[in-house]
UniProtKB/TrEMBL annotation:
GO molecular function: ATP binding; UDP-N-acetylmuramate-L-alanine ligase activity
Class in the EC hierarchy, top level: ligase
GO biological process: cell division; cell wall organization; peptidoglycan biosynthetic process; regulation of cell shape
UniProt-annotated binding residues for ATP: 120-126
Amino-acid biosynthesis listed as a keyword: no
EC number assigned by the record: 6.3.2.8
Pfam families: Mur_ligase, Mur_ligase_C, Mur_ligase_M
Family: Belongs to the MurCDEF family.
Protein name from the UniProt record: UDP-N-acetylmuramate--L-alanine ligase
Boundaries of every Mur ligase central domain copy: 118-288
Keywords carried by this UniProt record: ATP-binding, Cell cycle, Cell division, Cell shape, Cell wall biogenesis/degradation, Cytoplasm, Ligase, Nucleotide-binding, Peptidoglycan synthesis
Function: Cell wall formation.
């Protein structure tokens, strides 16, 4: 397939954060872009406003007429998040269309470019957004395919005028093995997606394969202590890594740190995005930017005005009466990072956490870990599991986690009940966490807590 010949693109699962980035990319190139997704969201509405035709029923008879037979100018992309029995996917397959995964197309786009790929079971979205922002803000420039909405640009895809591209490398379904980066960052390799990998060792092996695909002369940057099995530069916070953040502190609600890689030192970097875990992410992003020739002064300035990523430690309400932060965390270690950062920033306040588990398999596999981390909160409101692509598993529910928790101030609620409780209890410090549709609560909670 030659990308320069493509005139029409259909995306099955167009509303996903990665898929929507590809949709915007091909629309930017002048292609006719259409797609299907299960539900309408603010993101699909944005895509429609940008001129894309989207349907929300799995009905092949609603497809545009110019997608009736395969040709060299037509590209069909799908995400594994869409069920295999989708009628639209069946329609394309029955007519002989070759279907490409998002990751395959990303591999084709980045093939001839200088690629910075950021992988990890958590931290990859924020780190890739940081790298892209430093390159943009410094004038070095880049294109980027991001797994979240970068607040500085209000989009998940950036267009550059050079051949540098920053991509988020997704380990789900081994997608990142389509990439051959010049610079690779690996932030974490915690057990996850065990429905795909079976066990932690197979996931780790997949990351090692990814690290082995770096182009000759390329660079690997990985978090200290990861069993990556390849030569590279390690990074971390105060842990004897080759690339290190030190003197981490909170001043007036902002995180500051010093950076050193043995050759370059940068003092008193203010990070525009809070969270101790984001200091670690910024350390990796800084090293990648320095390898690309960005000056230390430009790196420091860019991190200071980095506005974060939507749903990554995002302040929704911040006034004298209330602090409300929303985060995408859906793995025990991500929750630990989010909760511990909130408690470090606001040590004297009572923390109320609203959590929505994501996937039956993940809840089953990590029930003990979720319970341990959620016990760090002062009050917990637990929503039911968001199933996403999965069917229910007998005996697996949010109660699995609640029953393992030691904290007494916990309860399972529906979404409306959560809003009612917050309206009555008026919590001073609130954190919503989860990767499902918990984001539907953000605006109502903002309305409740923001009206001071």
């Amino acid at each position: 397939m030659e990308l320069q010949n493509i005139q029409r693109v259909y995306l099955v699962g167009i509303g996903g954060i990665g898929m929507s980035g590809l949709a915007r990319y091909f629309a930017h190139l002048g292609c006719v872009v259409c797609g299907y997704d299960k539900t309408s969201t603010p993101l699909t509405t944005e895509l429609q406003n940008e001129g894309m035709q989207i349907i929300f029923d799995d009905r092949p008879d609603w497809l545009p007429i110019n997608f009736d037979k395969p040709c060299d100018s037509t590209l069909v992309i799908y995400t594994p998040a869409i069920p295999a029995d989708s009628q639209i996917i069946k329609y394309f397959r029955d007519r002989g269309f070759e279907l490409f995964k998002r990751s395959q197309v990303l591999g084709l786009i980045s093939k001839g470019m200088f690629t910075v790929a950021v992988a990890g079971t958590h931290g990859k979205t924020t780190t890739s957004c940081m790298v892209a922002h430093i390159l943009k803000a410094s004038g070095t420039d880049c294109s980027a395919f991001l797994g979240g909405i970068a607040a500085n640009y209000q989009t998940n895809v950036l267009y550059g005028k050079n051949d540098v591209v920053v991509v988020e490398a997704d380990e789900y379904d081994r997608s990142f093995l389509t990439l051959h980066p010049n610079i690779a960052i690996v932030t974490s390799m915690d057990a996850d997606h065990l429905d795909i990998y079976g066990d932690h060792s197979h996931l780790q092996e997949s990351f090692r394969l990814f690290a082995g695909q770096i182009k000759p002369g390329g660079q690997l940057i990985y978090h200290e202590g990861l069993p990556i099995g390849h030569d590279g530069q390690t990074y971390g916070i105060d842990d004897n890594a080759q690339v290190e953040a030190s003197n981490v502190r909170v001043e007036n609600g902002d995180f500051y740190f010093d950076f050193s890689n043995g050759e370059v030192g940068i003092k008193n970097i203010r990070l525009g995005m809070p969270g101790i875990h984001n200091v670690s992410n910024a350390t990796a992003a800084t090293q990648a930017a320095l390898l690309l020739g960005v000056s230390p002064e430009a790196v420091k300035a860019a991190l200071g005005n980095f506005a974060g990523v939507k749903r990554r430690f995002e302040y929704i309400v911040k006034n004298d009466a209330h602090i409300y932060i929303d985060d995408y965390a859906h793995h025990p270690e991500e929750l630990r990072a989010a909760i511990s950062s909130v408690k470090k920033l606001y040590p004297g306040k009572k923390l109320t956490v609203i959590f929505q588990p994501h996937l039956f398999t993940r809840t089953r596999d990590f029930a003990d870990g979720f319970a341990e981390v959620l016990d760090m909160s002062d009050e917990l409101l637990m929503l039911d599991i968001y199933p996403a692509r999965e069917l229910p598993i007998e005996g697996v529910s949010a109660d699995m986690v609640l029953e393992r928790m030691k904290m007494l101030n916990k309860r399972k609620c529906g979404k409306q009940e959560v809003l009612d409780i917050v309206r009555v209890e008026n919590p001073e410090l609130l954190l919503t966490v989860g990767a499902g549709d918990i984001d539907q609560l953000v605006q109502p909670l903002k309305t409740i807590l923001g009206n001071v």
